[in-house]
Amino acid sequence: MKAKGIYFVDVALLLVAVATCLTGVFLHKAGHFNTHEVWHNWAVAHIVSSVLMLLFGALHIYVHLGWYKSLLKGKTKGKSIITLMLSVLFVVVAMTGVVMLAMTFVPNTGVGLWHYVVGIVLSVASIAHIVLRWQQLLKLKSAIR
């Protein structure tokens, strides 16, 4: 994929990650303090942003597939533990989110707590990942001009 496409995927993923994180926080807050209608609206927003995050997350992984292939070949020298942790957390949050969506009519399961806690850890790891790669993103932006 050319630099312009990689840059688009990375920026889009950044934006939907922020949207997913914020809608998740507001959804959690709405569950404690608001009406069911407000909670439902935040739930819909969170699901939409999460589906977009899955889409752009998959594209991001595809764009950086060489990194994952090198891991499978045992080439771990110089690999970021944060990126590896982020990948695992992303899968766990996505899986628990899908399970929760499938169990909509089964309230008060432990899956929601797992999704919430791992989602917070994923958010922190995402911030670290973005901070560590911010200069690369800026270089990529400069390269497409």
Could you provide a short overview of the structure?
The protein is an all-alpha fold. The chain has 5 helices and no strands.
Walk me through what this model shows:
The chain is mainly alpha-helical. It has one domain (3-143). Helix content is 85%, strand content 0%. It contains 5 helices and no strands. Helix 1 (3-33) runs antiparallel to helix 5 (110-143) and helix 4 crosses helix 5. The longest helix is centred in the C-terminal third of the chain and has 34 residues, at 110-143. The radius of gyration is 17 Å and the shape is globular. 19% of the residues are buried. The model has no long low-confidence stretch (mean pLDDT 87).
What structural class is derived from the secondary structure elements?
A: mainly alpha
User: Unreliable stretches, pLDDT < 50, 5 or more residues?
Assistant: none
Q: What is the percentage of strand-forming residues?
A: under 5%
Report the radius of gyration as a whole number of Å.
17 Å
- Helicity, in percent? over 70%
Kindly state the number of beta strands: 0
What's the number of structural domains? 1
Counting DSSP H or I runs of 4 or more residues, the number of helices is 5
Residue-averaged pLDDT:
87
Distance between the termini: 16 Å
Order of H and E elements: HHHHH
**Shape from CA axes?**
globular
**Largest beta-sheet details:** none
